[in-house]
Prior knowledge:
single chain; globular; 14% strand; nine-stranded parallel beta sheet; alpha/beta
Amino acid sequence: MSENRIEAKLEQLKEKQEKAFITYLTAGLPDMEKTKEIIKAQETAGTDIVEIGVPFSDPIADGPVIQQASYESILGGTNIHKCFDAVEELRADGCGLPMIFMLYYNTICHYGVGKFVKKCREAGVDGLIIPDLPMEEQEEIQAYLAGQDETILIQLVSPVSGQRVPEIVKDARGFIYCVSSMGVTGQSGTFHREISNYLADVKARSPIPVMMGFGITKAADIAPMKDSIDGAIVGSHFINLLRENDFAPEAAAAYCRTFKEEMRRL
C-alpha cells in the first residue's frame, strides 16, 4: 500500500515545525500546458501542496474570481479527462508535489464514482475536496476510497459546523480545511468575528492538521491565528496574481517562495 503524499508531506512539516503552504489554481487557465508549468514552478519554489480546480459550470462554493476562471477554462475545452491527463503527465515528468482535485460531485457522478476513484489512483491524484458533498452524503465515495492510501477525501468545516465538528474530524484524512469566513471563496481578509475561537476549537478537536482557507493573500493574514492552524490555503488571490503576470511560472514561483519564507517568520 502506497503512502499518501499529502500525509507524508504534512508529517515532514510537523517534524520541521513548519506550517503548510497550499495554493489553488484552476486547471486549463489559460491552457493546460501553462497549468503544468505553473505547478512545476511551485514545486521548485517550495509550495507544499497544490489544489487543482476542475472547472464546473455551476461552482456554488466559489466567488467571482474562481467562477470566471472556471468559465474561461471550460470555454477553452478543459474537462475532467484532460485534468487527469495533466496529472499523469506531471507525474511522468517526475513531479512529486502532492496534488488535490477540488471539484463538484456532479462531475464525479457523471464520470462514475468507482471509475473516478480508480482513475485518481492510477493518475496520481492524492486527495479530493468536494465542497458540495457534506459528511452525511459521503458514504458511496468513501466506500470506494476505503482500504487504500493513494487518494483521500479532505473534509471541510465552517463557522456554522458547530456540533458536527467532532463527527466530521473523527475519521478524517490528510488535513481539515477550515472555511474561515461565511460565504464563497475570495472574500477579503476581514474574517468572521469569531474566527480565532472557531479555529482554536477545531484545532482542539482535530487529530490531524488544520488548514485555513478563503480570503488569504499574504502570510501576515494568518498571524493572529498562527497558534490555531497548521497552514494556509491561497486561491482567488493566487489566480489574480497569475492573471496580472500573464500566467508567468516565474511570478508564481516568486510569490510562493516569499509566502513560505514569511510564514516561517511568523
